Amino acid sequence: MIPRVAVAVFCLSAVLLLVGCSSAPAAPAAPAPTAVSAAPPDHVVVVILENKNEADVFREGPYLTSLAASGTSLTDMHAETHPSQPNYLALFSGDTQGVSDDHCPVTSGAPTLASELVAAGYSFAGYSEDLPEAGYTGCRAGDYARKHAPWTDFSTVPAAANLPLSAMPADHASLPTVSFLIPNLCHDMHDCSVAEGDDWLRQNIDGYARWARTHNSLLIVTFDESESSNDRDNHIATLAVGQHVTPGSYTRRTDHYGLLRTLEDLYGLPPLGNSARTTGVTGLWRTDS
Q1: Is residue 32 situated within a structural domain?
Q2: Cβ distance 165 to 131 under 8 Å?
C-alpha cells in the first residue's frame, strides 16, 4: 500500500511550494480543451518503456498486442527527440527543460503534471522498479536509473512521491489519482528484448489493466523514443485501456505533449509549456463506450 502519510506530505509540500512562488508570466493562449464526456478517471497509471520501434513492439510483444486490441492504439504517436531523458521531461512538464542528452542529476523548479494535480486537489506518485528506498535521489542503483524517473528532477515534487515499485498498492482503489510506473532497465526493454519486457508487463500490469476496464480507471503504455537515434520521425507505440476507452485506433499525429495535454484536460489543469500549443487525444475517454 502507498503510505497515506507520503501522499499527505506530497499534497502539503506542493501547496506550500505553490503559495511561495511568484506569479509566472502569462502563457500564450491555449487551444480549447479536448472534449471529455465522462467524469475524469479515478486512477491513471502511465507506464513508460524504452527505445523500441512500434513495428517491433507489436510483432514481438504478444501481451502488448492484446492490450492494444482491447483498447485504443495511437497509431501516429511520436517522441520529441533523441536520446531518452528529454522525452521524459517533455511528458512530465511540457518542456525538455533545456536538456538535450542523458545526464544526472537534472534539477528544475518548473511546474509539472504532479504539482498541478496536487494543487487541484488530486494526488500523484512515481513508482520505479529497483529504487532502493523511498525518496532516493541517486543517479543509479542496480537497474534503476534516475534519468527515467522525471519527477526526481523537480523541486516542485516532494521526495515523498518518489516510491519503489514495491510500494504500489495491491488494492488498485488505493492508488493516487495519477501514477507513473517505470520498470528497470531490463524490463523497460532498454537492456533486454521486447519479449522479456512484454512478459514482465503481463505479470505486473495485467491485474490493473483488467481492473481498470470495470472501475472508471485508465492505463496508458507508451515509449520514450524509437530505437534508432537516426530516426527523425521517432514513431513510438502507445496504447490506452480503461472502462471508458473505446477499442480502436487514434490516427491523428500526436506526441508526448499531446499525451500530457490529454491528462491535463481530463482533470481541468492549465496546460504546461508546449502542451499549451497542442490538443489532447480526442475521444480517448468517453461515457458512451
Answers
A1: no
A2: yes
Hey, what's the cell of 13?
Answer: 509540500
Share of the chain above pLDDT 70, in %: 86
Residue 225 covered by a domain: yes
Query: pLDDT tens digits for 61-80?
Result: 999 999 999 999 999 999 99
Helices 256-266, 85-93: crossing angle, 10 deg rounding: 30
In DSSP terms, which residues pair with 191 in a beta bridge?
none
Residue in 247, 279, 235 with CA at minimum distance from that of residue 51: 235
CA separation, residue 11 to residues 28, 121, 128, 131, 178 (Å): 28, 8, 20, 22, 13
Tell whether pTM > 0.85: yes
Other residues' Cβ atoms within 10 Å of the Cβ of residue 72: 23
3-state class (DSSP) for residue 258: helix
> pLDDT at position 229, please?
78
Residue 226 lies in domain: 4-21+42-277
Q: Which residues contact 264 (CB under 8 A, 6 or more apart)?
A: 113, 116, 270, 271, 272, 275, 280
